[in-house]
Design a protein that fits this description.
single chain; alpha/beta; six-stranded mixed β-sheet; 11 helices; globular
């Protein structure tokens, strides 16, 4: 269900169940988690095969769950989303076609979300008495702000790429989102990892600023020759 292949400094992970719009079962979630945890490349590119990014949870699976199993399924999806968020690799979601429910929530856990002009995003579960529970109620307010997150989730509406860009659900619209992953991967891997760690840090301001300064100093020590070379180029 998850296809994984390396391409230089980019690990390409593909939701590979196009017949079901890449909807995820328990096994699919486990495969995705394992693929992210074992990736050694500085950048991960996550996208979907066929005409969709990911339709979220497989509803045939959900329909057969009792209350206890449903909670366990939600917890599994939350764990996978945290894995995407916490891995040291930079995770770029390339959203081409529909991203729905849990599929959108996994994209929200990625560091960068890039849509194609054909992308559509939504949390339509409310229309049939459900909602995505893979961390969406945590990340949506953080990304959109509480008011817009409430409107988006409560209405169940689906937005196109341009609207998603205006809302802040995605940061760019590109015909080829993978090019963004390659653009990021061209930068020093250690600097990418440090930037992600610092930008994701939820500590108090004083702690964050101290750690930022320490990380900056370490990178200056590591990349001194490159910094000097850049200064020489600027003088020419």
């Amino acid at each position: 269900m998850i296809r994984s292949q390396g391409d230089g400094d980019v690990r390409i992970l593909t939701f590979d169940r196009p017949v079901a719009r890449n909807a995820l079962t328990e096994a699919g979630l486990d495969e995705l988690e394992a693929a992210v945890r074992t990736a050694e490349e500085p950048v991960i590119y996550l996208h979907g095969a066929g005409s969709a990014f990911c339709a979220g949870a497989d509803l045939d699976t959900v329909a057969g769950l009792d209350t206890e199993a449903a909670e366990a399924f939600a917890r599994r999806g939350q764990r996978v989303a945290r894995t995407l968020e916490e891995t040291t690799s930079i995770v770029v979601a390339g959203i081409d076609g529909p991203a729905r429910g849990g599929g959108l929530e996994l994209a929200l856990a990625c560091d960068v979300r890039v849509a194609t002009p054909d992308a559509t995003l939504g949390e339509p579960g409310v229309t049939f008495g459900l909602f995505g529970a893979w961390g969406g109620t945590v990340r949506l307010p953080r990304i959109l702000g509480e008011g817009d997150a409430l409107e988006f989730a409560l209405s169940g509406r689906v937005v196109d790429a341009e609207t998603a860009l205006r809302m802040g659900l995605v940061s760019r619209i590109e015909d080829d989102p993978r090019a963004v992953a390659e653009e990021i991967a061209a930068n020093p891997a250690d600097t990418l990892a440090v930037l992600k760690e610092r930008l994701r840090d939820g500590s108090d301001r004083e702690t964050k600023e101290r750690l930022e300064a320490e990380a900056f100093a370490e990178l200056v020590g590591t990349h001194g020759d490159e910094i000097a070379a850049t200064r020489e180029e600027d003088r020419e």
